[in-house]
């Protein structure tokens, strides 16, 4: 990242995911019986804000980002108002206000994930080579927020824990306001008016591209992979802390975070792999990373060392599939709908995939639990099989046109 623009884009990604990483890992405990004492339904409603935002963002926010506002001004406005909303959560304690503020924050924050990608792709000279390095900033930002807060709050109980936990909203809100100001210094990314005769709805044009078989296949595989990806976060914590694996509660998050460290390393070399393996092979490896990890969970649950080691596959799962997906979307869709196209696929990654994972894996785990003991082998064979099916679908049905091929050499 030698250019000043690339360095700014890296900082943008650091701040973008710092905002999310500051509150997400710790908000659940704060809403529970030791904090706000919300009911299970109320906690679920707060957790659904991202799902709602990812759906509505397709129709409104990403549309504005594509057609009506320059992307950097959209980022500035969204993070200003969204930051003020999450700052307000520091003071409120009733469910209605708390949920309303989280919904406002989510409606403004979620589209910026797609828009930040679009800004990066617009100003990177070689997206296949450089996007992994820029997006690596997002993982670093998440870690910079989540890890210190986790270890600071570790061991606190009662009133002390509640008071300390509230600070996640201050930290996230301040970071959002900083990014709002910083966004105005980002390279100018103008709105892209609709092509004459095609109408003004960018999301409609983006959705029409799913009539192309290779994009429809990719859309289906993204849904499957997103469901598996979100299912991992639903199931892994309980599995790692179970009597079978035996990891102490205070070490569950650090163990799961091994995957984020691996993600940084994988992002750094993504361009090299893309140039040599191409879209299909890279994404297949990303999907197979899930299959390998869950197979180890299913067949080697008592091998704690192997369970810990296999967390490094998270880097391959995320970088090789999701980061490659974002790069491919930028190459496959016209400039005037790229934010909406990113939002269309993020609808699966952040919304429908998360919802499907809850609908599928939570009842499945309940069904496979007898007298408090989970049949983890059968449970984890399901995502293993789904991952293999998605990889096979990519192998036999994903054939993008030759003009979308990644460059043969991006090493210089």
UniProtKB/TrEMBL annotation:
Q: Where is the Major facilitator superfamily (MFS) profile domain?
A: 1-402
Keyword Ubl conjugation tagged: no
- GO cellular component annotations, sorted alphabetically? plasma membrane
State one molecular function term (GO).
cytidine transmembrane transporter activity
User: What is the annotated localization of this protein?
Assistant: Cell membrane
Pfam families tied to this protein: Nuc_H_symport
Q: Which UniProt keywords apply?
A: Cell membrane, Membrane, Transmembrane, Transmembrane helix, Transport
- Keyword ATP-binding assigned to the entry: answer is no
Protein's membrane topology: Multi-pass membrane protein
What's the name of the protein? Nucleoside permease
Organism annotation: Brevifollis gellanilyticus
């Amino acid at each position: 990242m030698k250019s000043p623009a690339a360095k700014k884009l890296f900082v943008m990604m650091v701040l973008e995911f710092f905002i999310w990483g500051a509150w997400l890992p710790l908000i659940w405990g704060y809403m529970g019986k030791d904090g706000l004492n919300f009911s299970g339904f109320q906690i679920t409603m707060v957790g659904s804000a991202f799902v709602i935002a990812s759906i509505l963002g397709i129709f409104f926010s990403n549309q504005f980002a594509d057609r009506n506002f320059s992307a950097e001004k959209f980022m500035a406005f969204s993070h200003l108002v969204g930051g003020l909303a999450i700052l307000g959560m520091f003071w409120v304690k009733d469910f209605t206000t708390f949920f309303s503020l989280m919904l406002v924050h989510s409606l403004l924050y979620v589209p910026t994930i797609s828009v930040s990608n679009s800004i990066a792709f617009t100003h990177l000279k070689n997206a296949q080579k450089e996007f992994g390095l820029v997006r690596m900033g997002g993982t670093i930002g998440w870690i910079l927020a989540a890890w210190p807060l986790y270890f600071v709050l570790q061991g606190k109980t009662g009133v002390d824990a509640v008071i300390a936990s509230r600070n996640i909203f201050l930290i996230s809100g301040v970071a959002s306001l900083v990014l709002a100001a910083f966004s105005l210094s980002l390279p100018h990314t103008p709105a892209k008016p609709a092509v004459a005769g095609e109408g003004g709805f960018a999301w409609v044009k983006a959705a029409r591209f799913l009539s192309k078989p290779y994009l429809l296949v990719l859309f289906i595989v993204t849904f499957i992979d997103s469901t598996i990806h979100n299912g991992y976060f639903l199931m892994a914590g309980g599995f790692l802390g179970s009597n079978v694996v035996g990891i102490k509660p205070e070490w569950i998050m650090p163990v799961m975070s091994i995957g984020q460290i691996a993600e940084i390393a994988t992002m750094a070399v993504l361009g090299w792999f893309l140039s040599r393996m191409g879209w299909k092979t890279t994404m297949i490896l990303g999907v197979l990373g899930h299959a390998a990890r869950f197979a180890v969970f299913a067949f080697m649950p008592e091998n704690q060392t192997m369970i810990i080691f296999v967390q490094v596959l998270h880097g391959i799962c995320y970088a090789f599939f999701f980061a490659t997906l974002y790069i491919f979307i930028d190459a496959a869709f016209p400039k005037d709908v790229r934010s909406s196209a990113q939002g269309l696929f993020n609808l699966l990654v952040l919304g429908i995939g998360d919802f499907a994972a809850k609908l599928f894996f939570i009842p499945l785990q309940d069904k496979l639990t007898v007298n408090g003991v989970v049949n983890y082998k059968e449970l984890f064979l399901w995502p293993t099989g789904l991952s293999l099916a998605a990889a096979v679908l990519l192998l036999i049905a994903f054939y993008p046109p030759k003009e979308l091929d990644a460059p043969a050499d991006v090493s210089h």
